[in-house]
Structures are given as structure tokens and as C-alpha cells.
Amino acid sequence: MAKSFKRAGNAAPQFLEDDPSTGYLPGRRWPVVRYGLISLAISAVLVFAIELIVRGDVAGTISFFLQPFKPGWTTIVVFALVLIGLDAVLGRSHQSLMIVAPLTLSLAFVGHQKSHYLGDPLYPTDFLYARQIFALLPLLVRERPMTALAMVAGIVAGLSLLVYGWRLWRRKVPALSHKGRLARLTLAVPLLAFFVSIMDYATFSWTRDRLQIIPIMWDQKENYASNGFALAFALNVPMAHVSAPPGYSDKAIAAIDRTNVTASVPTEKPDIIVVMSESFWDSTKLPGVTITPDPIPNVRALRSGSMFSPEFGGMTANIEFEALTGFSNAFLPAGSIPYQQYVRTPTPSMATFLKSEGYRARAIHPGTNWFWNRGAVYADFGFNDFKSEETLPPMEKRGPLASDAAMTDEIIREADASDDPVFFFAVSLQNHGPYEPNRYSNPTHSVQAPISQWARDSLISYAEGSADADRGLERLIEWAKTRERPTIVAFFGDHLPPLGPVYVETGFLKDNVAPRKEPTPEAALEHHATPLIIWSNRSGPVENLGTVSPAFLPYHILTAAGITHPYYTGFLGEMRERYRVVDRNLLLTPTGEATSDWARQKEIDPAIRDFRLLQYDMMFGKRLAAPDFFPETVDKVVSHTS
């Protein structure tokens, strides 16, 4: 009788007590502990795999976990909580691994590839321009078709295996009880919510500090190396919000020195044509390399100086941002892209000012309108119109992309057809990477260098594109010489090209990309300087500019045009007297004195402080400085949705 009663009593909770897969067993602690330990073990293996993929170094990965004060162990606990919480949502023990593992391992792989080719880790904001990456896939397929095919096959196989495993798991593993799911959520949700609350790098957290999670936002490579991929990625999520600089107030803006410079243009307004040439650089600077004939003879003859790019091998939009606004990426979160994140309302630029003075402000790019969000950004910058692939007439291609010659023809045609003075900002496309061998049929250049045949052929492809850009400049100059209207032509490369293995084989770099934080100012100049030409059909090339940040280009361009402005020639002119390079990691004076890691110092030059305050005020703040520094924007700012 007692035996029968016992069986009857056991019948109801049999699912909970006899099935360890539920993980919630009233009265039995060991299955609960076992579930927790298994979750921790799975998390440890997953986090180790993520770090191994991202770092590409077994010894470095092991070292990361062997150091007790590194946040790797915190990451394991966080991943375990995520897995436990998702198990509750999905209703099966450990099934969350089928979502978390593919997602995080894929992110780790993408992060490794980005670091390998562009030198920067993966940021949350990178997904804002994922469409750009897909748009460039045809070029990548052309360069490495077998690799692309293998990746597609791997993705298809992986997804098929995942679907099969998911369905098998749902059939084989019993569903969790309501109590088991509630217990998991009760544990995971509050702890994860607390963890999220301490991940804003702009605020101090006692807990985060004790866990040795130290936001190193000024050096993202070190940030990812020290905190690990997952935590560093999470620390970068809040970068979409830019905190006010210390001391920002009405009084601080009022205290910034006002110059006596006012807005003025010559009676005969000059046309201003600015060409930002994709990846344009002097490839003859590669050690041990001889390129015949010289691919850039016109640039060499007319060169005014160098432009110090804040980027390497990519991120063109960040150079555009500085060159058009006179603001600096140095004052924005590392890894951010203003075009994607911050330009969401009318923002002062050279286009805004020149349009207010009767210019027709026009932008041209033979790529798509949405690339880098240019369509919306150019509207916010005040351009009258933007001609892109969608609105330009059919353009002749050179290789796989629209040619520099066709873009030059369009600039000349539109300038000649305009009765109003024009401000052109043109971004070329032809010489965009990758530089696959045999990109152009019947190349006119040859390369002599002790490097592999692949690297030699790749360099020939790049040299051909550079020569076309050089000829485009020559054509603009020859055309401008015949014009009655004063004409200013500015030409510069946005960054060094992504030549990858060519740099390593020639000894120019140790890795495929330059380090974000260079060991010396000399190395920074070598790896970030591109040719700069500012030329007038009345006075010829501007000379001896040295190396300047793109934020100072408005000053030099407008000065050459005989135009003044309280910010672009006034404030930036005075700033240029103090610094010629303002970069996140480097300040460089006109005499060559360098200050590295300036942002980490307790005392910052008041001039740099004012530069930062002024930029924040106009981009994110109250625009208190507008009447004195940007009078053309007063009473003209309206809400704009990009």
C-alpha cells in the first residue's frame, strides 16, 4: 500500500525530478549545479574560441585567460547568463548555444578580417554601413573567386547543419517547465540588466573598475586586447552618444577668442573645384620599388604639400567630414563615423557658407547615392545638388569602375554650363581597392621590385589607376588655364591604398595595415600623408604647405580663393599657426614638435580645448557660437530627418 502510494506521489513531478535536462529540480541541488557548471563550461569554450579567432594567436589567447585580473572571466560569466536566459526563452536546455555560438563566432571572424585588412577592430557602428560592404563584394569576388565560392559553400553548409541540429534538439530534449524557465529568467535578467548599466564608458562604475574592465577608448586596439572582443564591443555601443566636453557651458563658448575676420568674397568670385581622389598616393615611396614611367608626374610638379589622413586604407567618409566642415575626428569617439552617426541635422560646411554667398554648391561621386549616407549628409551640409550614379549620365568605365576621365569630363561640362560661380566637391571611384592583378588590359607601367609576381601585378594595377588620376588633374589644370573666371583646383588623396601584402613584401609595413597608434611621429607621417595640390589659374600652385590635417583644408582652399570667413579662415587660421596636424593620437606644430597621446594628459592646450568646445557646440550643443563663427547658419537651421 505504501509502495503504491509512493508511486502515485511520484507520478505528478516525474518530468521535473527525473529529467536532468530541465535544470530545475525541486529538492535536488546537484542537477541544478550541474546545469550551471555545464553552462559555464560551454561559455568558457565559446569565449576562448572567440578570442582565438579574433586574435589569431593561441599563446596570446591563453595569456589573456591566465591573467587573473583580466576581464576574460567576467566575459565567461556574462555569456553563461545570456545562455541561461535564452534557454528560458527557447524552452530547451542549452539550445541557446545554437543561436549565440554562430552569431558570436561569425562576428569574431568578421572582426579578425577587418583588423587584418583595415587595422581597426569591429565596432557596433560598422553595421550601419554593412550595405557598403555588400556593394563592394563584386570587387572582392573578382580578386579571389575561389575564396568567395568557398565562403558561400561554407555558409550554406553551416546554415543547413544549424537547421538540422535545431530540429533534432527540439525533438530529443524535453521542454523546460514553467518553473524552470522562470527560475532562469529570475537569475539572468537582473544580473544582465545590471551589467548593461555599467558599460557606459563615459561614466565611472565602481563595479566595472573592480572587475578590471577598463575602457580604453583612445586606443581601440588596446581596448580590445585588454578587455577582450565581447566586452570591448559592448563598451563601444554607447559611442553613438557624444558626451559634452568638460567645461562646456554658455560661459565657455563666450570665452573663446573671436577674430576680426568677417565673411567676404572677391568681386569676381572664383570657381572652386575640390577633387578627393580615391586612395591616391605616391607608390614610388615603397622601399626597393621602381615604377616606370613615373605614374604621377603632374602631381609631383604641382605639389603644395601633404594631407595627413586620420585613416589608413579606408573610411573615406571621415576624411570628407574634416575637409568639408573644418571639424576634427580627433574630438569624436574612436571608431565613429560622423556621416553615419552624427550628421542628422543641417551642419555648417564650406558648402553652406559658399551657397550663402551666391555659389552653386555641387557634389559629384560616380558611386551610389546611399554609399556612406552621402545623399542625406550632403543635403545637411548645404549642397544644392548631388550627382551620383543614379543621376549622372552613363559614365565610361576603366576597369570595373567609373573612370576618373569621365568624372573630369562631367566637372568641366557642369562648370562651363553654370552662370553662377560653382563650388564642386568631387569624390573619384576608379582607383578603389582591391587592386587585383590584371585589372586593366594593356597596362602602360612596369614594376621592378624583389617581391612576388602577385604583388608586382597588384602594384601595376594600382599604378595604372594613380596615373589616370594624375592625368585627370592635368586635364583640369589645362582647362582652368584657358578660363577667364578665376578658378581654384584642390586635389588630394583621402588615404593610403589598401595594398595589403605589397606593404609587407616591400618592407614598408610589418603588417598589411599601419597601426592606429604609430610608435613615432615620423612613422605616422610616413603612413598617413597623401599628396596635396592647391592651384589657382591666376597665381599657380600654392607652395610649402607642409603636412596638414584635412580639417585645415578649408582654410587653405578659401585663402587661395581670396575668401575670408570667421571660422574657416579666422579660427582655423589661428589654429593653423599653432598646429598643422590635429589627430586623435598626435598633435604636430608647424615647426615639427610632436605631442603624442595628448588626449590622455591632464592639461590640454587651451587652443585645442576651444577647438573641441566649438565643434561640440555646433554639432551637438546649443549652437551658441553660430552668430560669431557661422553667421550664415543663424535662423536657417531647420529639422531634417536623414
TrEMBL record:
Transmembrane spans: 32-53, 73-90, 97-113, 146-166, 187-206
InterPro entries: Alkaline_phosphatase_core_sf, OpgB/LTA_synthase_biosynth, Sulfatase_N
Organism name: Mesorhizobium salmacidum
Keywords in alphabetical order: Cell membrane, Membrane, Transmembrane, Transmembrane helix
Location(s), subcellular: Cell membrane
Entry annotated with the keyword Protein biosynthesis: no
Membrane topology: Multi-pass membrane protein
One Pfam family cited in the UniProt record for this chain: Sulfatase
Residue intervals of the Sulfatase N-terminal domain: 270-563
Classification via CDD domains: LTA_synthase
Gene3D superfamilies for the chain: Alkaline Phosphatase, subunit A
Protein name as catalogued: LTA synthase family protein
